[in-house]
Each structure stands twice: as structure tokens, then as C-alpha cells.
């Protein structure tokens, strides 16, 4: 086992050297070939997915997870067209980011280059296999794809189709390598393969991400956990606030850019909550609240569970919310910087000074004034793709895509200069 | 102990919130005040350094290390003027890196922001205290400075002077915090303070850096280890090659951008080595070599120690070199990518195609054509400062300074947009 994953990483490293010298045209042609191969192999991929679905159902896997796991012709077409979209994006490699002549006369250029070997560790979404392979091909990286055991047949089927198509299109053998075992130790090996794995990206639940952070010695981009807030400041349009809160909480509660808490200025709490609490309750949202929220709930006939300290720190990822009154923007900022996860945060206000203070002082990847946190997404942000949403500050923050899978190097051309 | 370092980090975190809202003018004024305070406190800092020097001499510390540790009025003036140079650099924060209106009408900006809390872990050079504090002030970061036990009195004296000056100039209390204990566990605590330490930078020997990489759960920028090469390709100017090899090996052998190995095309090995080996030997360089180098040494009357596999991987950091003949540029690239540390690599050739292949395929932060590896330095590269030389590909590569101590955030301003 240990041998197998290490060998795979060594093969990927060798492939990464070849990938670094492919042209953008070659990589884009490979993306088109990969898209077509997915379409041509729809039946086989669906059959592999059926095996995963059957095993998952037999295990009593809950419905939302089954939905993430499920592939059909439409979803496979979605993966294929996403690969074609990648091919159409501007070339990320060889971009001259800086250029100057040093005092010594040496000519310096800083140019974008691939990372090398990117390892992707993910869970039940088989489409991540195609997204990750595609973005790595676009950026000239070799990739190691470690899908979750629930999706293993689907992931291997997709990866094998993509690898064959990429190699047929002229990319190096082993440029896309799926991990074939479901043994958990394979992840731990990837986490510690310094010199072979240049970047590891975990995508999945908080447990997986924490495990990677705690055990990685290779560089990691932390993704995903989102304990996000909407804060409604006293001078706010109540209808706008209601609309944003409902969208941010209920439009898709299981994703990381949905909110988990509502903060509201104490002076407008009765008025705002008289509108918001019945709407949340009507949408099936379980509400935890402080005393102010409990009072507003009693007035509106909406049941409120007394909130505990733990609620402020909880990412429910479900139709559930914590509601708290605060005394102004400073308390809201302090609460968010204490309990938030540096993901997406929103202020609703008609006061520009308060808004700008919130934008400047809240420590998060994406800070909103009068718009829903649900916009935090690579596609919405115009990145053309997304491989994850980073909650760290090193290298990539917020939704990230091509740029984050590139590094740079300095090229220095002289005519015999030495240092004096 | 544990309490103390954690408390320090909590204080630094609180200070970082205040630092993030200071203006560039305030931070530059603080840098000038810090410079003046160093000058005004020269006697006290030298006295503290005397205590470190005395203890170091009593321990039998070798002369090169004593030289790194030593401070006098001239070196303190050097630290002061470096702080003033930082003040003169362009403002790194609040730079609008991207700006666009999303399909929804939400206006997006990506702006540069501080990292937050930067922890610097270093060894015997007390001047790193001032360099790190200065660059963190410039970039709006709070910093925790963990100097080595050998330099502890010097580091604390410098840090206390700088902190007092920064606070007098209006920066937040605790924006510069030295670790006051020499207990090694303080480093390990810093390495695992997720949520409090946003970035940790180790500067020092390979042992320190490896320890940080192995144990860190906070984001780290790996610095420093340099197993660098000069490769002399067959069509090369022998005088230029000799000049570059001598500069790269002997001008300052104890630094990371000095070379450790010389590779030479087999067909010109006799001619090149007939010139290079006596010059190296004459400069006091101990030479390890393969069979070709041994033959050339015998012909030139220069003693050559037979090289072992280990020599190719060794960073001597001393007047010592390994010499090997290769069969052309592909073998040279393969050797460097196998044994190098992604730091600085050089080809000497008059063949542009070979040079460009080397520049493209060697996986290192800084790749040279006909110039000495010794130029890899923040000052030489025109960065205006340097906090280290990164050998990783994430976030910062090669010499890094202000830009690497900044992150970015997305600011999104709407008028009630929600996601459909």
C-alpha cells in the first residue's frame, strides 16, 4: 500500500516535468478531448456510479449525500462542458508578471509556472474528479486524485476516461493519477510526501479538512468551513434585510456560503425580527436565539430555542440558525471575528460609514454590503472556474481557480555577471 | 509557559485588528520613529549584545557564528537605515488588485490586506528582529518574534526599543511582541496556534526549518536551504564559467545562494576543470569529484576526494564543492531536479536553445543563464527588502518581502442582490 501511493506520486512528479513544457494549445486540445471522452463514455460512468449508489443505499446513506453522489447523463454533460469552458479561459502559464534590469545588468523576469504535483483529497462528489483534473491540465500540473470511498467506482471510472483522453491528446503518461485504494492511510501518505506533492487541497467536511491540516507537512490550501453571518445595522431597509437573510439562509442551506447566524442591532431587533422570524419559521428553519430573539419570537408566536455559546460557533449546514442582538457595528465585528471562519460576512445598512468600517475590519475572504453571502463562488466572482473556497490567508483566499494552481519563478539572463 | 506564549499570541491578534486600520502614513511614521529609537539606544543594545557574546564565547561558539551574533554601532545604524528604506517603499496595503461588476450588479473589488499575526522564528542573527518588525509594521501585521537563545538578550533589547517607539508613534499596544523565554516549547506552541498565528516564517539552519515544517499546523513559508549548482554546457566561454563558478562558490560560501556542486559537460570537462580545479584549490576549496573530476585533478595536481551519492545532496555551506561530468543539458537538468532544493541554479552556455531549455525545465525559484547564483537576494532583485528566500511554490517563491506578508480580501458592494 505505502509503496503504491508513493510510486504514484513519483510517477506524477515525473509527469509534472513533462506537463511544464507542454504548450497551451496542447493542454486546451486535451481538455476538449477529455470532454468528448466523458460524453462517449457516459454509459460506463453511469454504470460505475450505479455500483456506488447501490452500495451507498445499502449503507443507509442519507438522501442529500445520495444526491451529491448521483451521476446521470445530464451531470456528465455538465462536467464535459465545464472542461470546454476551461479550455476557453486565458492561458495562465508563462505570464510575465514582472520584468526589469538589475543594477548588475542582469535581466530579470518573473513568470507564472505550474505548481508541479497537485493532490486533491475529496469526498462524495464524483464531479470533483473532472473539475480537478481539468483545472490541473489547464495549469500544467500533474494531479493525484483521492476520492472518497463512497464514490470510488465513479471517481475511478471518470479519472481513467480522462487520463486516457489526455494521453491520447499528447499529454505525458501519468499526468492524471487516481488513488485506487480506499484505505485511509493513502491520504496520510499524500499529506507527508514532501518533495513529491507540491500542493494538497482537501475538499469535504470539517473532519477531513481538520485531519489534513493537523497532519500535513506538504503545503495545503484550507477550504470550505463557513460559519457566515448577516448583520443588520440599525439604519437598514427591513425588506432588503429580510430578502438577504432568507436567501443567505434558505436558498441552499447545505453549502459553505450559507449563513449560520443573524446579528441585529438591538434598537431595530423587534421590528426586524417581527418580519424575519415568521419567514424563517415558515421556511422550516429551526431558530436558536438570545433573550432578545426569544422575546421577539414570543411576540410573533414563533418557537425559539435558547441559544448556547456553542450555537455561535456552529456551522449547521442545515435549515437552522442562531439569532443575536448586538449593540452596534463594533460588537457585530467583534462577534464575527471571534466566531466566524473567515469565509463570507454581510452587513445590511444604509449607512456608508458603518458599511466601510465593516468591510475594512471584518477578517474574512469575502465581505458584503447589502448583498447575499451566497455569491461567494468562483463562477459568480468571474474566475471562470472554482476548485474550492479558501479560508486561509496564504496564497489563495476566497474562491480560487487557475491562479491558485500556479506558482512563479524568476528567470535571470546575464552575460557573465558576478556579485561584487 | 504555555499560557505565556498563547497569551502573547492573543495580544498580537488583538493588535493585528488595530494594525489593519492604521494608515500608511502612520506606519511609515512609526518606522522612522523605530529607526531613531535604535540609534538613540545604541549603547543599551550593544550592552545586551555583549552579554550574548560573552555567553557565546564561553560556550565555545565558532567564529562565523560569533560574527553573525555581534552588534556594534555600525550594524545598528544599518538596521535603522533599513527601517527608513522600508518607510520609503510604496504602500503595500489597500491596493485594488481586481475590480469588476458581477452579472448580478454587485461591485467586486479584490484589495491587498495584512496577513494578521506573523510569527518569525530565527536563530543567531539579532538584526532579523529589526528586519522582521519593520517589514511587519510596513505591511500592517502584528508580529511575534522568537529569536534564538544565543541572541536572546540582543533580540529582546531591540524588540523592546522598537515596540516602545512604534506604540509612541500611535501603533497599537502589542503590535511587536518578543518571546521572552528561550524554552524550545515556545516554538512548538507557535507552530500550532491556528486562528492566532496567520503565518509563520522560520529563518535559520536546516534543522530549525525541518522542525517547523514537520510540526506546523499554521501556514508556513519554507526558507533557505540551498543546494545550488552551476552547470557549464559544452559551448561555453571558459573564462566566464571560471569567473561565475569562483564567485558562486567562494565569494560567501556560508550563504544559501552559494553553489555546492559544479556540473560540466563531459566533452569540455578536461579543458574547464584544468582551469577551475586549481583556482578552487587555490582558494582553499575542498573538492569532491566523480571519476572525470578525479582524472582532471590528477592531471592538474589538485587533490580530489572521490564523491559519494551523499555529496550530490549536501549543502556544505563552506569552502567545499562536488564536481561531476554530465552528458549534456538533459542530464544536468535531471540531476538538478533530483538533488537540488529549488533555490538557485545556473547554466553557463553560449547556446540560447540550451539556455532556454534549462530556464524552462529546472524547477527552482531563480534560474540563471550566464550569471552567478549569488544574485538571489531581495535587495539585488529590486524588492526593496527581504525577509527570506522561499524554496516552496505556495504563496511566495525566491526572495520575498512586502508582497508575501500581505493577503487579499474581496469586498462586495450591492443594493440588495440575492442569488437566484
Description of the structure:
Two copies of one chain form a homodimer. Chain A is an alpha/beta fold and 420 residues long. Chain A is built from 15 helices and 16 strands. In chain A, strands 10-9-11-8-7-12-13 form a seven-stranded parallel β-sheet, sandwiched between helices. In chain A, α11 (269-282) crosses α12. Chain A is globular. The mean pLDDT of chain A is 95. The interface between A and B is large, with 67 and 67 residues. β13 of chain A pairs parallel with β16 (406-417) of chain B.
Strand content of chain A: 15-25%
Question: How many helical elements of chain A?
Answer: 15
Distance between the termini of chain A: 53 Å
Helix content estimate of chain A: 40-55%
Gist?
Chain A is of the alpha/beta class. Chain A is built from 15 helices and 16 strands. In chain A, helix 15 links the parallel strand 12 (344-348) and strand 13 (366-371).
Blueprint (SSEs and pairs):
Two copies of one chain form a homodimer.
Chain A: H1 2-19, H2 24-40, H3 42-58, H4 63-69, H5 73-88, E1 96-101, E2 107-114, E3 117-122, H6 127-138, E4 142-146, H7 152-168, E5 176-178, H8 185-191, E6 199-203, H9 206-215, E7 228-232, H10 238-250, E8 259-265, H11 269-282, E9 286-289, H12 291-300, E10 305-306, H13 309-312, E11 320-326, H14 329-339, E12 344-348, H15 352-361, E13 366-371, E14 388-390, E15 398-400, E16 406-417
Parallel strand pairs in A: 3-4, 3-6, 4-5, 7-8, 7-12, 8-11, 9-10, 9-11, 12-13
Antiparallel strand pairs in A: 1-2, 2-16, 14-15
Amino acid at each position: 500500500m505505502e509503496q503504491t501511493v508513493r510510486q504514484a506520486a513519483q510517477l506524477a512528479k515525473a509527469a509534472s516535468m513533462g506537463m511544464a513544457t507542454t504548450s497551451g494549445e496542447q493542454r486546451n486540445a486535451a481538455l476538449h478531448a477529455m470532454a468528448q471522452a466523458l460524453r462517449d463514455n457516459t454509459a460506463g460512468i453511469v454504470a460505475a456510479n450505479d455500483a456506488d449508489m447501490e452500495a451507498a443505499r445499502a449503507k443507509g446513506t442519507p438522501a442529500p449525500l445520495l444526491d451529491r453522489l448521483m451521476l446521470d447523463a445530464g451531470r456528465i454533460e455538465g462536467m464535459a462542458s465545464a472542461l470546454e469552458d476551461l479550455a476557453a479561459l486565458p492561458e495562465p502559464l508563462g505570464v510575465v508578471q514582472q520584468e526589469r534590469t538589475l543594477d548588475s545588468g542582469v535581466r530579470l523576469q518573473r513568470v507564472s509556472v505550474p505548481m508541479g504535483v497537485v493532490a486533491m483529497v475529496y469526498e462524495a462528489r464524483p464531479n470533483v474528479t473532472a473539475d480537478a483534473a481539468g483545472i490541473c491540465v489547464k495549469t500544467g500540473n500533474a494531479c493525484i486524485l483521492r476520492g472518497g470511498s463512497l464514490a470510488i467506482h465513479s471517481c475511478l471510472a471518470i479519472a481513467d476516461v480522462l487520463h486516457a483522453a489526455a494521453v491520447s491528446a499528447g499529454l505525458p503518461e501519468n499526468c492524471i493519477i487516481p488513488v485506487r485504494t480506499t484505505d485511509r492511510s493513502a491520504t496520510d501518505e499524500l499529506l507527508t510526501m514532501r518533495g513529491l506533492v507540491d500542493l494538497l487541497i482537501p475538499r469535504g467536511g470539517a473532519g477531513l479538512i481538520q485531519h489534513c491540516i493537523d497532519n500535513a507537512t506538504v503545503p495545503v490550501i484550507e477550504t470550505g468551513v463557513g460559519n457566515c453571518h448577516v448583520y443588520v445595522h440599525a439604519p437598514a431597509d427591513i425588506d432588503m434585510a429580510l430578502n438577504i437573510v432568507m436567501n443567505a439562509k434558505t436558498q441552499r442551506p447545505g453549502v459553505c456560503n450559507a449563513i449560520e447566524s443573524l446579528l441585529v442591532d438591538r434598537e431595530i431587533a423587534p421590528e426586524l425580527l417581527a418580519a424575519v422570524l415568521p419567514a424563517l419559521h415558515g421556511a422550516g428553519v429551526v431558530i436558536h436565539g438570545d433573550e432578545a430573539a426569544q422575546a421577539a419570537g414570543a411576540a410573533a408566536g414563533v418557537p425559539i430555542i435558547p441559544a448556547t455559546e456553542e450555537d455561535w460557533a456552529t456551522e449547521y449546514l442545515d435549515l437552522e440558525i442562531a439569532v443575536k442582538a448586538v449593540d452596534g457595528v463594533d460588537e457585530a465585528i467583534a462577534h464575527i471575528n471571534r466566531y466566524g471562519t473567515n469565509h463570507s460576512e454581510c452587513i445590511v445598512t444604509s449607512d456608508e460609514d458603518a458599511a466601510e468600517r465593516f468591510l475594512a475590519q471584518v477578517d474574512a475572504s469575502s465581505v458584503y454590503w447589502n448583498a447575499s453571502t451566497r455569491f461567494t463562488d468562483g463562477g459568480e466572482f468571474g474566475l471562470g472556474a472554482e476548485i474550492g473556497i479558501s479560508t486561509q490567508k496564504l496564497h489563495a483566499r476566497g474562491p480560487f481557480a487557475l491562479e491558485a494552481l500556479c506558482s512563479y519563478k524568476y528567470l535571470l539572463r546575464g552575460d557573465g555577471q558576478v556579485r561584487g
